[in-house]
């Protein structure tokens, strides 16, 4: 019985756990998830439980042989003479010939760190998958407000306003007008306060001292125009005339 050619197998029939960029590493069997398999064909995000270190009193995750990296067997060292670095690939460390896995994206020579890709391309792909799995409604081009799903149930009036471009425009215009009115009123109150202070300062500067008229007898026999007038003080400062 002849084996079917791999190219003849449809894409839907191929297992989702295989990765083209990292064939030695299985991915989560959940559609659209590129995390590594931890237990039962799924990742930790989709229900897998990490095994703990078998060393008594240790709560770290097991790495190899049921032990963590601290209590497990020592990692293989580089085969190069006198080198104590950990072997990465082919019995050698990166300093002595271990080839680093490159990003699976075309024309990218960066080292692969996440799912066979560099950090930038991994983040871009994660954003694309998130946008496809959770599409957002299109907001008006002039509206900077982010759509909130809980707003539809808590505040239906606000939700209707966000969905209607004309209602949103009217709301923004009224907000701008109210803000402008507040600024104008604040400036006007500042101008009035400054004007009152200036008038008070000019009145205190132009008002003559009470002793001026009393000393020179400008108001002889008449009540002094100031409320703190002292008649005894006025008699003492009355001018005296001598006839020779």
TrEMBL record:
Disordered as annotated region, ranges: 1-26, 47-75, 122-148, 204-244
Identification of the protein by name: Uncharacterized protein
Stretches with biased composition (Basic and acidic residues): 53-62, 230-244
PANTHER family: EMB|CAB89363.1
Compositional bias annotation for Low complexity: 7-21
């Amino acid at each position: 019985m002849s084996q079917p050619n791999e190219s003849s197998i449809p894409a839907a029939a191929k297992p989702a756990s295989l990765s083209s960029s990292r064939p030695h590493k299985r991915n989560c069997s959940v559609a659209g998830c590129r995390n590594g398999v931890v237990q039962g064909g799924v990742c930790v995000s989709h229900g897998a439980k990490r095994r703990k270190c078998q060393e008594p009193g240790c709560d770290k995750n097991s790495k190899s042989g049921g032990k963590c990296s601290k209590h497990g067997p020592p990692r293989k060292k580089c085969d190069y003479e006198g080198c104590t670095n950990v072997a990465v690939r082919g019995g050698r460390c990166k300093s002595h010939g271990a080839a680093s896995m490159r990003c699976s994206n075309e024309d990218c020579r960066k080292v692969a760190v996440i799912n066979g890709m560099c950090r930038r391309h991994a983040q871009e792909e994660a954003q694309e998958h998130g946008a496809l799995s959770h599409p957002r409604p299109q907001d008006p081009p002039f509206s900077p407000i982010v759509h909130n799903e809980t707003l539809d149930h808590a505040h239906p009036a606000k939700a209707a306003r966000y969905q209607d471009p004309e209602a949103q425009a009217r709301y923004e215009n009224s907000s701008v007008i109210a803000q402008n009115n507040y600024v104008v009123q604040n400036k006007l109150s500042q101008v009035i306060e400054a004007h009152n202070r200036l008038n008070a300062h000019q009145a205190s500067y132009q008002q003559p001292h009470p002793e001026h008229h009393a000393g020179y007898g400008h108001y002889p026999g008449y009540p002094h125009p100031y409320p703190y007038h002292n008649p005894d003080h006025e008699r003492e400062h009355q001018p005296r005339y001598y006839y020779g």
